[in-house]
């Protein structure tokens, strides 16, 4: 961490994710760190960002801290309009109108496929069987992964989460790689980055396999490779991500004014 301005791994991940968002975009965020990253971007460098939630709350900014849900008072108090999940996910996202979405992951593989459904002991097999550990499910993440022009994945960088191939695809990335997404006619373009607690991975333009693009100042290539469950390639242009500026940290912490997400 920076000696002059300490920050947590989660804060660095949120700032790095927020830097991926551009002014004027139509964006959709889930609760938690994805919302922190999105509204940080709006506060810092994207004042004309048009934000919405999966529940159809449009054009709001958090009041009194980050919301606990996609329709709680903190996110609905100053909304421009209220629609519904059908409008948000089915129309704006499903039609390809949404520029960017942010989703989380329990597991992610080298092609950016996300599992948030369950953890199985080995392959599921021909007939469905219950997972060893049942997770929360996809929620609106599948819609975002299929329909947004691009989406960002936020995930803690742990070997158990970064697997060669997810057992269950809750939200599709590039499937088997290459042009595999084209077979399904998705309106969206796929994941543009996986932002972790250690660095940033981006897909190869041809194979769509994710490779290390950058690492955070407190991490290293060696630490990232050791915590990835496949033979992660390193981009020839891989570099250190600039540390947060004082202005970035101030904007981030104003969004998360209660400090609910400020964990080590």
Describe the model.
- By secondary structure, the protein is of the alpha/beta class.
- The protein has a single domain, classed as 3-Layer(aba) Sandwich (Glutaconate Coenzyme A-transferase).
- Helix content is 22%, strand content 22%.
- It is built from 7 helices and 15 strands.
- The strands form 4 sheets. Strands 2-1-5-10-12-13-14-15 form an 8-stranded mixed sheet, sandwiched between helices.
- α1 packs across α2 and α2 crosses α7.
- The longest helix is centred in the N-terminal third of the chain and has 12 residues.
- The radius of gyration is 18 Å and the shape is globular.
- 44% of the residues are buried.
- The mean pLDDT is 93.
Strand order of the largest sheet: 2-1-5-10-12-13-14-15
Estimate the helix proportion, in percent. Answer: 10-25%
Rounded to an integer in angstroms, the radius of gyration calculated over CA atoms is 18 Å
Topology-level CATH name: Glutaconate Coenzyme A-transferase
Q: What's the number of extended β-strand segments? A: 15
Shape: globular
Counting structural domains, the number is 1
SS element count, helices: 7
Characterize the largest beta sheet: strand count, sense, and whether it forms a barrel.
8 strands, mixed
Q: State the CATH architecture.
A: 3-Layer(aba) Sandwich
Query: pLDDT average, as an integer?
Result: 93
Q: Which runs of at least 5 residues are low in confidence (pLDDT < 50)?
A: none
Look at the structure and give the CATH class: Alpha Beta
Strand content bin: 15-25%
Sheet/helix structural class? alpha/beta
In CATH terms, the superfamily is Glutaconate Coenzyme A-transferase
Assembly classification: single chain
How do the SSEs run, as a string of H and E?
HEHEEHEHEEEEEHEEEEEHEH
């Amino acid at each position: 961490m920076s000696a002059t301005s300490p920050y947590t791994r989660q804060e660095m991940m949120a700032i790095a994710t927020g830097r991926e968002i551009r002014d004027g975009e139509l964006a959709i965020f889930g609760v938690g760190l994805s919302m922190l990253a999105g509204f940080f971007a709006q506060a810092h460098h994207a004042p004309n960002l048009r934000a919405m939630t999966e529940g159809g709350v449009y054009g709001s900014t958090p009041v009194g801290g980050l919301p606990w849900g996609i329709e709680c008072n903190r996110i609905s108090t100053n909304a421009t309009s209220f629609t519904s999940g059908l409008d948000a996910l089915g129309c704006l996202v499903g039609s390809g109108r949404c520029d960017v979405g942010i989703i989380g992951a329990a597991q992610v593989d080298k092609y950016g496929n996300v599992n948030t459904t369950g953890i199985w002991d080995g392959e599921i097999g021909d007939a469905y069987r219950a997972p060893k550990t049942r997770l929360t499910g996809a929620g609106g993440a599948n819609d975002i992964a299929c329909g947004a022009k691009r989406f960002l994945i936020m995930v803690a960088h742990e070997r158990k989460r970064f697997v060669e191939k997810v057992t269950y695809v809750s939200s599709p990335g590039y499937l088997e790689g290459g042009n595999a997404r084209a077979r399904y006619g998705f309106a969206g373009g796929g994941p543009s980055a996986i932002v972790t607690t250690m660095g940033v991975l981006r897909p190869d333009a041809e194979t769509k396999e994710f490779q290390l693009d950058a690492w955070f100042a407190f991490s290293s290539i060696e630490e990232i490779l050791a915590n990835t469950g496949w033979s992660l390639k390193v981009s020839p242009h891989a570099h250190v991500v600039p540390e947060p500026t004082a202005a970035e940290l101030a904007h981030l912490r104003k969004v998360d004014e209660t400090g609910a997400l400020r964990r080590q």
